[in-house]
Design brief:
6 helices, alpha/beta, Rossmann fold, 10 strands, six-stranded mixed sheet
Length: 235
């Protein structure tokens, strides 16, 4: 098993109204390449804090977190930004599409950030949009797309630069059952590969069966990790 993510004794506290709140209290978690891991648990249990530390958006107070053998805390801010731009794709609950850009332009943003010429980036973006079933909507603005279609654009944007880590925060919570199921099938097909890892924060029990493993969190701890490997999508 090749480890993609290694978290050891992660502690993170916040200060709110003069009070210290412990968001993560000694979290240990290893995630392998090729794995779809879900983080579940009640609101405020530390899920989003944990993925933010894994993705290098937040620094932990203590403990160690390595992504592909690299420790964000040993990098300069510039190196952190560059590492994230190359290695991480994000799918946000609110999609975070730029309203004035069409689908292809939205999807091309990570490539342009990484230095690709705009014309080349948009050509590649159109290819990835075709992979997610939106080959006919590349010129559509976000307002002209349904919620499910906007989510597919967001997934294409997360995948276009071939990142090794894809992080999804509540990717199906705003979708009906069929759309949510389609999004998860899409993620499973195009995102989960032997050299990638997919981490999903979710409250949506309808999609739990898509996970390889589920880490249940409560009160800043991981309280249980269960395997879902007996589930197959080609049933």
């Amino acid at each position: 098993m090749s480890l993609a993510i290694h978290c050891q004794n992660i502690v993170k506290t916040y200060t709110t109204d003069g009070q210290q709140v412990v968001a993560l209290n000694g979290v240990d978690l290893d995630i392998a390449l090729g794995e779809l891991m879900m983080l579940v648990g009640p609101s405020g249990c530390g899920k989003t804090t944990l993925i933010s530390i894994i993705a290098g958006i937040l620094n932990q107070d203590s403990g160690r977190c390595e992504l592909f053998g690299e420790d964000f805390q040993s990098m300069s801010n510039k190196d952190q930004l560059r590492f994230r731009a190359v290695n991480i794709g994000f799918v946000f609950q609110a999609y975070n599409l730029l309203p004035s850009l069409n689908a292809a332009e939205n999807v091309s943003v990570p490539l342009i950030i990484n230095g690709m010429k705009r014309s080349v980036a948009e050509r590649k973006a159109k290819d990835v949009l075709a992979q997610v079933g939106l080959g006919e909507r590349t010129q559509s603005l976000p307002a002209q797309l349904s919620g499910g279609q906007q989510q597919r654009v967001a997934i294409a944007r997360a995948l276009v630069h071939s990142p090794r880590l894809i992080v999804c925060d509540e990717p199906t919570s705003a979708l009906d059952h069929k759309s949510g199921h389609n999004v998860m099938e899409l993620l499973k097909q195009v995102a989960v590969q032997h050299d990638r890892v997919l981490v999903i924060v979710t409250h949506d029990a309808r999609i739990f069966s898509f996970a390889d493993r589920i880490a249940e969190m409560d009160d800043g701890h991981i309280v249980k990790i269960s395997n879902q490997t007996s589930h197959h999508l080609d049933r």
